User: What shape does this take?
Amino acid sequence: MKKILFLAMILGVAFASCKKDPVIDPEPEPEPVVTATFSLSAETVSGSGSATDNEIITAVSFTNNSTIDGASEYVWEIDDTTLPTGWQASICDNVQCWSPDRTDNTISVNKDDSFDLKVHFYPNNIDGSGTVNVKVYATSDSAGTAKTIVYTASTGK
Assistant: This one.
């Protein structure tokens, strides 16, 4: 009996000394969040001029602040327009100046690049004031990045 107890004790000590702490794999580091983001110099801008002016130009600077290397895609779309009868408005982006009937466009902007997103108001010899609301967002996250820019222009009598 003493031999069995002695043997059990030696085996217990031997197993205890060989026992290693279990290796626990740490949680893998999460991947960094890569998002297409942008900033605007303002979310409201206004301009004024005479009804006889060919156009009144309003502009907001758009900058791609994305963490994505290379280019990211963004959309601008006219959300609402309130213009006096006879007035027109058009948008100029980093691609071109569009005709007044263009209401949206998808643009590609390189990381850290900026451009002026402009609304040109054409008063056509008519006094008044007008507003164009332009919604801008990243195509990769339309809900999380959407911003509305309010452009206004007015002419005096």
